[in-house]
Specification:
Layout (H helix, E strand, L loop, with lengths): L1 H56 L3 H8 L2 E6 L4 E5 L5 E2 L9 E10 L9 E8 L9 E7 L1 H5 L2 E3 L4 E8 L11 E9 L5 E8 L6
Antiparallel strand pairs: 1-4, 2-3, 2-4, 4-8, 5-6, 5-9, 7-8, 9-10
């Protein structure tokens, strides 16, 4: 009887070890296939990069820059201003209590042909109240990196631009005097820096 129990224990343990070994083999096989697939993808990307380098190396610097795009200026559109941020996520202008919660800057990069283009770069935005003393005049400053800027591209049937949304500074409650929005755009392709500013009139905010 004792021998039978021992034999059953050995057999059961052997089966468990065998199943564990099979599971490990399956896992290793799947891992190998996944690594092989990733290797193929890396080799394909590497080949594409080699072709791109070969193509670009044969072009003159001015051709590489000018043929991609030639940013000439930036423009802050008339829709720039303060808006209400409603509970449902919608944004609209003209709050009943005169308070403004969001500053939205609509920015258009424009090329040599006067076309609006999705230029890549870094944007700095400043909000000024020039009626205040110098130390209090700067109400807010924001910076948008290239990755974040890409997500701000906003195109409809009527308008194409970057739509930059910021929380309004706490000082901005009811606007009685004109404010100034200043935008600095550093273009990554050419290295050029463009600056534009726009006055936000109180009449446009209510």
């Amino acid at each position: 009887m004792l021998y039978a129990v021992l034999a059953l224990f050995v057999f059961t343990g052997g089966c468990e070890n065998l199943n564990e070994l099979k599971n490990r083999i399956v896992a290793l096989t799947e891992s190998k296939e996944q690594l092989h697939k990733q290797l193929k993808e890396v080799e394909s990307e590497n080949e594409q990069l080699k072709q791109q380098v070969q193509t670009l190396s044969g072009l003159k610097p001015e051709i590489r820059l000018e043929n991609v795009y030639n940013l000439k200026r930036i423009q802050i559109t008339r829709y720039t201003g303060f808006y209400e941020n409603e509970e449902n996520g919608q944004i609209r202008s003209g709050m009943p209590d005169g308070k403004k919660k969001k500053l939205i800057v609509y920015l258009q990069p424009i090329d040599q042909d006067g076309d609006i283009i999705k230029a890549t770069g870094v944007v700095d935005v400043e909000l000024w109240d020039l009626n205040k003393p110098a130390k209090e005049a700067l109400l807010g400053r924001w910076n948008i990196g290239t990755d974040e800027l890409r997500k701000c591209w906003f195109a409809t049937v009527l308008i194409i631009n970057y739509r930059l949304v910021f929380d309004a500074p706490p000082q901005v409650i009811a606007i009685k005097e004109p404010l100034v929005v200043k935008v600095t755009f550093a273009d990554y392709l050419s290295g050029k820096v463009f600056t534009e500013q726009k006055i936000i009139e109180p009449a446009l905010l209510d």
